[in-house]
Amino acid sequence: MNERDVLLNELAQGLHPMSQGIEWFDGLGREEQSEVLLFLRHHCIQARAVAEDAPESIRRSGLRLTHTPAVLISRGRIDEQLGKIAGLAPLDERRKTFRLLTAVLAVADARRRERFCSGGLGSVDVEEPEELRDGS
């Protein structure tokens, strides 16, 4: 896992403020931003995002219901809509998309961890503290 992946995972887990994520995202070139949005889309689907995640994700992202990414995620099959959202081109839409996809990942991954990682530490992407690996 590279530094980008760790940062995005930690943003989704609330370990960094979204303002830090936006600042980082804004510092990327257009091509890199596209890669990040596609990465987030892919991980939202892997975390088993469902249409019911849309309202909570919109709320967490701070977007208005009338913002394009929020409108899109509320319509149709979520896997298709996530692809459309990740492909939005204008810079202001890309920022909104980044916020929304990070929130979708947070909602879907929290549910996935709750269902499938019971008794564990949570996301498999987070390294266990050394004291827990030793069994002490």
- The best one-word shape is globular
The arrangement of helices and strands along the chain is: HHHHHHHH
The helix/strand class is mainly alpha
Give the helix level as a range of percent: 55-70%
Average pLDDT figure: 85
Distance between the termini: 27 Å
Number of beta strands: 0
Count, helices: 8
* Beta fraction: under 5%
Q: Can you describe this structure?
A:
The longest helix is centred in the C-terminal third of the chain and has 26 residues, at 91-116. Helix 3 packs antiparallel against helix 6 (78-86) and helix 4 crosses helix 7. This protein is globular. It has helices at 3-12, 18-26, 30-46, 54-61, 68-73, 78-86, 91-116, 130-133. It has eight helices and no strands. By secondary structure, the protein is mainly alpha-helical.
What tags apply to this protein structure?
136 residues; mainly alpha; 8 helices
Topology:
Elements: H1 3-12, H2 18-26, H3 30-46, H4 54-61, H5 68-73, H6 78-86, H7 91-116, H8 130-133
